[in-house]
């Protein structure tokens, strides 16, 4: 309940908790005593916070001497003395120094040891720190917790990102007691199951958007390529040909060519692995064979690809909407008008141009609208509210509709110029023509795949049927029902 | 913890789990043995996944013969043999074939039976499959789980939509053990209480946006009606009258008339049931009588109505912002300027037109801004963060402010033309005039309802007072306090 | 599982639950008997709902006489008689009338008392109602629950905001039983730990956006100040000087000056407390001293400040994009063109103006894009998905990049006019010049703070090092690791 605890007063370093909350009299019933091994910064921060919540704290240390750094109210003892005073011992010591715990095996027997350590690198050790600890002190109940919390968040309790405390352990009673402490401290415990989860929990705080790396680099490459492509066609060519300096186009015109291309290409790349997977399954005649690694990885980051594409589409919309505000556009419009007015000529109105212009814009708007809908549906809290059937409907049906609309938007944008030789510059077609290759390919293959004859085979394969196998399962067993069956989006 | 498990390697069909994770040595402590009745696709997928998480799997089958389809590492026995090897038995068999379980009553006594079945239609059977199972095997502990998960999601673990596993059952210990398995598989168990919830859990994956149907059809009808209305006024009339072909207006101009009308009407329809309910309560003099079914249903889908309205408003904003980019608009502007320049005349600047134009636009922007705020507040994760008082403040106060601003936006848009006979075409008023009927009605009734004398009576009724009843509750009992009291929005 | 329960039929006041759900036969197993003390509106609403879910209800009352108001199926007894019929007693009585419970101490021994009361003011009593109840009836197990639920929500079950039931209590078994009831009623119980949390739970429904107050008032003051500033410069001055009536500027032009200023200033104020905190820590040479209260409070509402700033930025974008649609703008453009066409003169194209105009717009778009990204990341469901390192990356790195882009946008907007004496009006500089003061200050200080020499000291301080203390912690103890260490954003 993050919103409740936000209003808990931040920690009073120089005061005891009873001073800080003089009004809480009935509630000041003493909580249990907790022992902390290690007097480093994180151990002290944890002690501060726990003292504030009415826990009694004893520190265990190699040199049990009072220090001004220790929070007021905590006591300090030798390791074994401290351990005897509490059932729960928090190990605020680096993994490399866990060895001393081996000598305490006897006194730690049956106690709850809370491993709060982190590593410096992902998968630094073959086994997680918590599992290593369980190995060192076999008689104790090991619980992994608190490693995703920062000391500062403990003290201030402000940032939503730091509220969640992942907890795992093999002894459910021990885990429950640690989760109670987490909750009392105003944090949100999340039960992650057995100690097997410790490795993931230890890797978790070290990650920096791992699923976003591939989409990020891919879109960076796309942008750089199309940037140079457009610079050659739109800036260098006019300069070479007619010595015109139109470098100011770098600020808006060129980006507004790159962004829609990147958006459309990435959107198509969201749906490409799905059709590749379908082709593979048709070719192999079974779904019980693993896809190649690159395809698996690609399919895993489709959501991220889609969101990056949405970002580019959003930028494209903004860049397009500011067009009439730009000095260059206003200047051009004014001067053309003056020239015509001076010459007393008027353009004739072309209904077909009006149709092309309006439907190109309308297709773009509708495509963007559906794209935003897809983006909203991929918000975790929204996608948790929809069931599998609804999710597939949105992500697959609406997704393909978005792709169709955006492709049509680009095709109509080309309009009469599309593929006309006159628009070649130095044998280079317009950038948007290149951008259409992948989306059109995806749409054509998808269209073939949903032809009834092919779709029927594919559905059977996905329900567990295999081309080269005699049927063993008699009808009574649960197949992929129509609900369970997903079309791999 | 969906973000952690996303990085679990996808299942290796041809490998055993120890090959897949060679580094996990400490954590490979064997989990318990689980029995699966049925070797269909879903049972096999579940077995694959559980083997990967170090469970031992025994299949129970009518024909217990080894099959190449079965995952490596699983054993297969007859039903009763398999059941004896495990406390937990997953029933991966269609409901129509549950009968054979009756004969196993003795061996299943005290065991945990996990019902994972789904139906083909909502409310297909009078009682849920899980309750039917409980009826067949009275001595077993029935737990409903896994039915919302797709086999594909089990294998890849990618899609957020499929992470949640609803679990229900009457025996809390049995439920807890199944939830532990769910968690170990990297999924998120959600405790739904007793087996009474099974029916809902079984219906859940079959639904396709049930709350969105009414808003969807209503807005479709609105759009179609106003489409033909606008086509008659804006395209057929000019064609009949002056033979002008302006069909290109179908792409942008006509939608941009329909969308704001749909948005405003739907927004008003969000607040209409609230005022109808208030009138009903005032008329009846009590809140302890049920509203008619249509009103109940209407009130239940107000959020969806509002979000559809927001969608239309968003489209209206985009369609409006592209106006200056349109070929038709640019052509008209240029030609008028040339005509005037040739004639050497200039329009006089009209301050009142400037006021009308600017305030109409400003009201629209502010209305849209508040509308977006309302939309954000209705995101599940945001609405979970606000309390009842805050939610009412946003949805009721800000909601009515939005309605007022959008209605005013439309009124000022009409400006001097509003209700002028000159704007009638074939006796048809402009579409926006029709669009104003419902919003203005709602606002006028709401204004009457908040007059002090009426509001006081309404508040008393909502606090439990009844006009035709002698007071029984003496003051000491909890009424609707000011916090609990909601104004039905 | 809010989406499941939404489809539960709303309560049938005149029917028993078996009529309402004739199809549920297997599931109608009787739930336990629950006693409710008090026959006020909330007690009755709760009883209706619980009867619907197959609980048996007995009311306890001072005057145990049948009333037509009581829901059909409930019985009514004297307090002590009613209490004997159930383990769980819900106290639907105002706190001021709790005294009568003292006389029932004997019969309430070992029972579960559920305190559902609310207060009229935040912190109305020194201790929470639930703790007061625990004090009055020492032998009973007190559980706090249901106080955040409205009676209306209980009956209709529609609104997400009212689904969450915060539960706390010292006896975990008693708490579990109450949470089971909550779940059976279709609501979501959230365990808040021990009875110490009751005070917060009771304050919770009384709050009205407490964290938003400071940002709201601050932005109101900013807006009012800059409104008068701009009115003086842009409306009064032209009127005094040249008798021009340009009051129509109040609708769009003036707001579109105020909103970007408010957005930029508030965004800078999000990052100002961080640099102040860093300076304080450098000056004091320790992190173990509390920041002044005002700084603490400021840091706690940075998220809200940022979101208000985003709101202003969003309005600024909309107000800017409608510029070409405005009558005033179109009129000016047309008349200038006509004037020039009549005079047969043309402006020369200025490449530097094109550069300035385009890059000013491009910087604004990119800044707004990042700003929206920051806003999306602060959605609770998104920020729960990112770890501490990722959150810091987004909020700190991307946040400062946003600030830099928006500041640059404003600087380039000024362009050649920036700080030129000609733009002074009555000695007042343009409003945007004033708006640049805080952002530039923050950026300069931040730039100094990340110089290697200063950054190194700051990092050591934040890892627990103190300038005026002898080192006590030897290396083995957990310091703020690189992951835990946050830069206070």
Automatic annotation (TrEMBL), chains A, B, C:
Residues 33-119 form the Pyrroline-5-carboxylate reductase catalytic N-terminal domain. Keywords: Copper, Endosome, FAD, Flavoprotein, Ion transport, Iron, Iron transport, Membrane, Metal-binding, Oxidoreductase, Transmembrane, Transmembrane helix, Transport. Residues 467-489 are annotated as: Disordered. Its cofactor is FAD; heme b. It is found in: Endosome membrane. Pfam families: F420_oxidored, Ferric_reduct. It is a multi-pass membrane protein. Residues 261-406 form the Ferric oxidoreductase domain. One of its GO terms (molecular function) is cupric reductase (NADH) activity. It catalyses: 2 Cu(+) + NADP(+) + H(+) = 2 Cu(2+) + NADPH; 2 Fe(2+) + NADP(+) + H(+) = 2 Fe(3+) + NADPH. InterPro entries: Fe3_Rdtase_TM_dom, NAD(P)-bd_dom_sf, P5C_Rdtase_cat_N, STEAP_metalloreductase. Gene3D superfamilies: NAD(P)-binding Rossmann-like Domain. Residues 470-489 have a biased composition (Polar residues). It comes from the Eukaryota. GO terms for cellular component: endosome membrane; plasma membrane. GO terms for biological process: copper ion import; iron ion transport. The chain crosses the membrane at residues 216-238, 258-283, 304-329, 360-386, 398-419, 431-454. Belongs to the STEAP family. This is (raccoon dog) hypothetical protein. The lineage of its organism: Eukaryota, Metazoa, Chordata, Craniata, Vertebrata.
